[in-house]
Amino acid sequence: MKAVPKVDTDGLFIEDVITDDSFTGVVPFYADQPVTADEQPEGEPQPAGYIIGVPVLVGLFKPRFDLMAWEAYQKVVSAALDEYQGTYDEWTALPEEERGEAPIYVSPEQPILWVEGLTQEEIDELTKPPATETPEEKMARLEQENALLKAQNAALSERADFIEDVVAEMALQVYQ
Predict the structure, then answer these.
(1) In which domain of life is the source organism classified (predicted)?
(2) Which residues, 6+ apart, have CB-to-CB distance to 91 below 8 Å?
């Protein structure tokens, strides 16, 4: 079993799903359509997304599978297979002594199918360093923190004094 990406109809990554190790390609999945006993679903169901047998590239902020590039690649593969089959058929039609080496199928190179789903502005927003404080802002923040800590310390001191007084009163009551 292996994890493969599940994408929406725009090709944006949703989650990984577990499939058989031999899974390859692109397969649509469909959303459940509630149907009552007297209703029939209208027309063909529309895909809710796709299960993708191509690993996601590392380093993408929001991976998007390029479905158009996949379809174009499938046409190129189909044309290469047709060309190979024609060459192979011609080779097998020759007498055995004239054949030579059998033709070898060479699969077309797969293009990069995973692209970045965020714009450069969105990536810049995610990766920008945190804003640095000016010395004046830092001083104001530290003064606020200091005032808060002093107030908390005073409250704790008052509470400790109160508890001490209560314990002293209880001791007087017990030892009288």
Answers:
(1) Bacteria
(2) 99, 102, 103
